[in-house]
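Notebook B, p. 112. Complex prediction, attempt 2.
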Amino acid sequence: MKAELNEQALLKGLANNDSKAVEALYKSHFNMIQHFVLNNNGSFDDARDIFQEAMITLYEKVQSSSFVLTCQIKTYLFSICKHLWLKRLHQMDKYSSPLSVHEESISVDEDIVAFEKKDAAFAIMDRALNSLGEPCKSLLEGYYINKKGMQELAKDFGYTNADNAKNQKYKCLMRLKKLFFTQYNIGD
Amino acid sequence: MEDIKLQETIEKYLTGDLSAQERELFEVIRKNTPEIDQMVVEHSMFLHHMDSYAKRRHFTKLTEKTFQHLLTAGEWTVDNALPSNAKMIQLWNKYKKVTAIAASVAGFIALSTSAIIMYFSPSLNGNQLLQLSKAIEVIKKNQQVQGHLLNEVKSKVPENAKLISGGSGFLIDPKGFIITNAHVLKGNGAIVINNLGEELNAHIIFTDKDLDLALLKIEDKDFSAPKSIPFSIRKKMTDLGEEIFTLGYPRNDNDIVYGKGYLSAQTGFEGDSSSFQIQISANPGYSGAPLFNDKGELIGIISTRQKLAEGVAFAIKSNKIIDLIASVIEKDEKTEIKLKISKGNYSTTANRKDQISKYKPYIFSVRSYN
């Protein structure tokens, strides 16, 4: 019961970007993944990468309102990592049939699909932002990602007043939206 | 200028920054103007994407920071022993044709590999290997049970002899040559028992404790030599993830047991290149059992398992059998052993059930006594 409460607290912390929760999850589960990846043709860096992806998948899962975790965090993370790693081995042509491991795992296909869909949208956003050029990129990042106010941004960027900054932001935003939606709709 | 005001209002509306009055007014406009309604939907979608994009960027940064922090705090050892080993092997493959360089490279590999293993192994110190031979008590008990069941058949174990150890083994030559693990043979004498429960006297010809392999020969008038061995020995390495199966005698009632698993690493315990790691539930008694790939080729001999990790076992590579037989023949040229080496890839995979019933008679329970 206590362990269950602890897991719930961890997930809550994770949903709120609590660095202590993230650290606790790394501390208790990264070694298992490292062991798994090293034993299956991978390196320490591979383990770091796929564990990070699994953490992001879990993070995005706990963000959604319909979130339920039907197993232990450990099992969930392991299942995601196993899935991701097998996929990578496949891409590198390093294995031919499914691999068995001694950790318990569950089917995570649905979550992987959700993650990949988001990933694709994020990649488009990333590309769109990067092709804007400066100052558009930094201005929009400042506003939408780092959540700064127009006043502050005007000061940071050296506009004489917030209205001028707003005007610039508007132009940049229109370009970004156009870039994003063109790509996004093609991708769909 | 109007567009920018409109865009600003839409954004404020979506982020909930409009006053109640403004909001009401805007909703009326939205209702009556399809273009504006579309703009709202589109911008809502955009903001949603932007919001989760921002969240992911923040979280990714957080994981990177956390990881780096824990790494510098010494939470993990960067354990790249396996991949480094693989690089060494690549290096080896690259240079092995140049005989003159080969010797020096080999020396270098030996030195650096052991250095790497020594450097990185502390984290593995907790792991221990468990030999899969059976303990004395178990066999003693078994002997009593058998005594009851088969009291009319006299055991071939000499009367005053004590059974010490046991495991599995398999024929590699129709004349009665059997391969098992060296650690299965802790005594001076040995008997083997086939899948029908018939005991046969065997002679220990050769043991190599370093390879952990041993060669026995059945020397018994009751032994009817088969015409040939149904399986061949694979010389080449087996691929990671390939399905494997084994037949051995882990149980006390001397029934042959089938087990299935996967090859999980191409090196053995702490990077040992003469063995590989398998994922199979290996119980004591499986020591010396043959390991076959999907095509039914012999790829190894089960020998040990990791003490703490259930399901992780190690098998000696089949090419070590070839090495062992070569050294036996070198010592005694009169020994006539013909190994059946796999010629390459079979295109067909036999039905597993048929394979098992075909292989069964060639797999023996091995017992050693003093």
